[in-house]
Specification:
Strand order of the largest sheet: 2-1-3-4-5-6-7
Number of helices: 15
Shape: globular
Distance between the termini: 26 Å
Helix content: 55-70%
Length: 377
């Protein structure tokens, strides 16, 4: 018997091929857009343009009976690819008169990413590693910008050795804590100082929509070109006082990484069959397990450094441990009403964000579920 679905499947295959051709044409246009943005110094990511375009496409989709969320999902994925391809054309050099840029630790992953971005913007970039320190004086002698990108526990030690930089040189760091490095930079250097914290890992395909926190140290008008260069790369710049930033990082990084670490250690000791967990998992558990597994696929020294970076992190983790113990006692007492009361208190604290996070998580879970593949047994 002939396949009754054959003709329809052939039509779908033809339409899919046409979609691929359209995507190829769109990426070709995006390349031209990237070239113009590079020439004129326009940022990769323009929020207003993206919002307006998505809104218009959703309305057009609705008018043709196409689910609005479907077209938004497709467009956002296409735009992510577009942002990645746009930087292949390089970027406008905001300060063509700047001297050499030195990235201390530029051979590492994050430092290397910034080396790449500065070079794509036309700057002369030098890398200073531990083995080059005997030549550091000549490497740093005419630097316009020095970026410190070394492990947290080495940062202040390295900064202390930078007391002979040119007076107008900008000194910056990329560390995930800001108060101590900023204080060290202000003591070591009399010129402009700024603390930077890229809120992403070195494996990002593009700076578009990524957040870079900056903490002012000294001479903001002097380092404005640096901030503008990062903005041209597509990043969103967020100013934050160093102490306020570090308090937030105790929750955003240290506690989050520690809880993932603790859950991974617990899983390892319980020794379940991972394949069985995945086969039986709901999309949300699979996503949670993926985030825990992601941690253990990376450099343990990096995460030890982040978690142990400041005493406040340990204090935060101890408070979490104490509350965890209290909630275990609540379960031991079989007090369901106390559980509901605590649940309601937290839900009230989240307020309207609870509904927002529900919608965001639905989108994430749908994407995670789309990538799930079953084996025929």
């Amino acid at each position: 018997m002939s396949d009754p679905l054959g003709p329809l499947r052939d039509q779908i295959d033809t339409l899919d091929q046409q979609l691929i051709e359209l995507f190829a044409k769109r990426l070709a246009v995006v390349k031209q857009v990237g070239e113009i943005k590079s020439q004129h110094g326009l940022p990769i990511y323009v929020p207003d343009r993206e919002t307006a375009m998505i809104s218009k496409r959703r309305a057009e989709a609705l008018a043709q009976g196409v689910p609005e969320q479907l077209i938004e999902d497709v467009l956002r994925r296409v735009m992510r690819e577009s942002y990645s391809s746009e930087h292949d054309n390089g970027f406008k050099q905001i300060n063509p008169n700047a001297g050499p840029i030195v990235v201390i630790g530029g051979g590492g992953q994050l430092g290397g990413l910034f080396v790449k971005m500065f070079r794509l913007s036309g700057y002369q970039v030098r890398i200073l590693e531990r083995q080059d320190w005997s030549r550091s004086e000549s490497i740093l002698s005419d630097a316009a910008l020095v970026v410190v990108s070394v492990p947290i526990h080495l940062t202040t030690e390295v900064i202390a050795q930078l007391s002979s930089l040119p007076k107008d040189c900008i000194l910056a760091d990329l560390t995930s804590i800001k108060a101590r490095p900023l204080e060290a930079m202000l003591q070591a250097h009399s010129g402009p100082v700024v603390g930077l914290h890229p809120m992403f890992g070195p494996d990002v395909a593009s700076f578009a929509k990524q957040v870079v926190v900056y903490a002012d140290g000294r001479g903001e008008s002097t380092y404005q070109w640096l901030l503008e260069q990062i903005r041209i790369w597509g990043a969103h710049l967020y100013p934050a006082p160093a102490k306020q930033h570090d308090q937030a990082m105790s929750l955003i990084q240290a506690l989050r990484h520690f809880t993932s670490f603790a859950y991974g250690v617990h899983l390892c000791h319980e020794a379940p069959e991972l394949e069985l967990l995945l086969d039986l998992s709901s999309p949300i558990y699979r996503l949670e397990l993926a985030m825990v597994g992601r941690l253990f696929a990376q450099n343990p020294e990096l995460y030890a450094d982040i978690i142990m970076a400041q005493p406040e992190n340990l204090a935060m983790i101890r408070r979490y441990h104490e509350r965890f113990g209290q909630l275990v006692e609540l379960l031991e007492s079989h007090d369901q009403q106390a559980f509901i009361d605590e649940f309601s208190k937290v839900r009230h604290w989240f307020g309207s964000y609870a509904d927002q996070f529900m919608q965001e998580s639905r989108n994430l879970l749908a994407q995670a579920h789309d990538q799930r593949h079953y084996q025929v047994r």
